[in-house]
Amino acid sequence: MTQQVVMSGTGLWTPQHSISNEELINCYNAYADKFNAENADKIESGEIQAKPHSSAEFVEKASGIKSRFIYEKEGVLDINRMRPVIAERSDEQISNQAEIAVEAAKKAMKAANKTAKDIDAVIVSCAYLQRSYPAIAIEVQAELGIEGFGFDMLVACSAATFGMHRAYEMIKAETAKTVLVINPELVSPQINYTDRDSHFIFGDVATAVILESEDTVTSDNAYNVLSTKAFTQFSSNIRSNHGYLNRANDTDPYGADKLFHQEGRKVFKDVCPLAAEHIKGHLAKHDLTPENLTRWWLHQANINMNTLISKRLLGREATKEEAPIVLDRYANTASAGSVIAFNLYNDDLAKGDYGILCSFGAGYSIGSLLVQKR
């Protein structure tokens, strides 16, 4: 298995709608006032707690997020709804998730100079899937006119890197020569917009990456994938419990515990050192140190996490050129964050420069790819 694997193109689809911190917070605070007024007696008796107010300043300081893109804005800022309005589509129509996946895929294919006939496999890897089956990847494959095969993966915020790991291994094993990995992160339906601690975290987006063997590369801007590294360690500190068993549990399938929820402080304390050691260990296998990297394309969950990780590795805070940040305008886009950063900030690297893509999230899961500019 000596075939060199290359990342030859990426694609980024961004929704047309966005929501600023100010819009989101004004809505949440209005909802909190309504909730507190309607439940004044229960709050007074201590039966339930009052909903606290938030502020745009709090959100930016806590996360680095200033705004987020969203697939459908209608309904999110309605205090009587607090979730997006997404019309159900018939089985004959393309699904929402496949639609945005196709948009990102087309851009990646163009960047890599690939057509449908050049691609052997499609992997859709993301935090949430719109349905159990048929696979979104197979639907995308059909829409693009790709022969071969496709399958879906779920690895929360590490889904993009883990999907690329599978593509890397398939190319190394020569079961495929060119693989399209897509991350259609349609996360807004799983956000609890009534929860002060998490309603601001996520945004919607779709990214795609082409990986192929070096003998078919025609892209002018490509990267050799030197190796991949994966790590998982079970934790319930980041969790989403929505699933088909909810129907048999006789519980509210859309209750707060079924939506995204986390123990944020525990996650920060646990994941930062794990991610730093993961990156350090990955580089050490190639006799490299953090100082040898020109660019870090890190998971975009929280600015404070990225700052602490870079400090642990470099002994100082990484510059914006070394570790570009996109979460200020995209927010946490689940698995797509590091791919967005790569897509927007890789053209300036010189031949021979090293970079690392690294994601980390629920599981806990950490995935990385060490790359070198061709």
Sheet having the most strands? 9 strands, mixed
Unreliably modeled segments? none
Q: Helix amount, in percent?
A: 25-40%
Shape: globular
User: Helix and strand string, N-terminal first?
Assistant: EEHHHEHEHEHEEEEHEHEHHHEE
Strand percentage: 15-25%
- E-strand count: 13
By secondary-structure content and strand pairing, the structural class works out as alpha+beta
Brief digest:
With 374 residues, the protein is an alpha+beta fold. It has helices at residues 21-38, 40-45, 56-63, 96-112, 136-144, 159-172, 246-249, 264-284, 303-314, 327-330, 337-344, and strands at 5-13, 17-20, 67-70, 121-126, 149-154, 178-185, 205-213, 223-232, 238-239, 261-262, 293-298, 354-361, 365-373. Helix 5 (136-144) links the parallel strand 4 (121-126) and strand 5 (149-154).
Explain what this protein looks like in three dimensions:
- The protein is α+β, with helices and mostly antiparallel strands.
- It contains eleven helices and 13 strands.
- The protein has helices at 21-38, 40-45, 56-63, 96-112, 136-144, 159-172, 246-249, 264-284, 303-314, 327-330, 337-344; strands at residues 5-13, 17-20, 67-70, 121-126, 149-154, 178-185, 205-213, 223-232, 238-239, 261-262, 293-298, 354-361, 365-373.
- The strands form three sheets. A nine-stranded mixed beta sheet has the order 5-4-6-7-1-8-13-12-11, sandwiched between helices.
- The protein is globular.
Task: List the defining traits of the structure above.
single chain, 374 residues, alpha+beta, nine-stranded mixed β-sheet, two-stranded antiparallel sheet, 11 helices
